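Hi team,

As requested, here is the filled-out complex form for the zinc ion run. I kept the field names the same as last time so the parser does not choke. Let me know if anything looks off before we queue the next batch.

— J.
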Amino acid sequence: MTTTIHNKFDLLLEQDPNHECEGFGKDKVCVRIVALAELPTRFGDFHIIAFENNRDGKEHVAITKGDVIGAKDVPVRLHSECLTGDAIGSLRCDCRDQLEASLTAIGKMDTGMVLYLRQEGRGIGLINKIRAYELQDDGLDTVEANIALGFRDDERDYAVAAHMLKSLKIDSVQLMTNNPKKINQLTQYGIEVAQRIPHIMDANEHNKFYLETKAAKSGHMIDFRGKQHLPEQSDRPYIKGMTEEQAIAIQE
Ligand SMILES: [Zn+2]
Ligand SMILES: [Zn+2]
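And here is what came back:
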């Protein structure tokens, strides 16, 4: 770690734990940085920055590469937590592929970060997500499982992400996403999205399955019994080797 980065981190840890503001978004979320450490990973050497949250106590983290504090046009990926996918490697979704692709890409960059947002199961939590899986195992489709559990369609909110970026003194980003909605939300909360970096994943044996089913079933996540799953990341994956048609389909 260079002296500059070290000094900036020291300053953040000195000042931010006392931070207080009106909050971001409709839920008035205010977050503050409370802990920070080095995090060597299989994807590269990162730092992990932990945020405390005034609203629901959720512990969000930023996984940062290089000298990002106060930097301009920082490459950023927003990832919503998925325990079953990220940690266990579930093939009911493609969350782990998306997370690994972003960490691999950012690990090779000079600067960048993944904001790991604790909105498990599209914000409804782990238990409800598993209930939805259960309903789908029993034969309900995505929409029916949604209704049965009283799901909202997709109310994931990126106000927290915007505040986290502000806490890191970042006003402008290059967003790694295939999803224009994420760009709109961040912009709305005062973060300039200077550029979009397409989030392209290398094909591997797991997302090859996904790609094939997507190709066959026009953009929906289908399991091996032929049932649809709820998308857990709001980005549709873009896998290297997709046809132009498939690539266009994920933008819609
Ligand atoms: Zn605040
Ligand atoms: Zn998932």
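Two things worth flagging: The chain has one domain: 3-235. The longest helix spans residues 3-15.

Thanks,
J.
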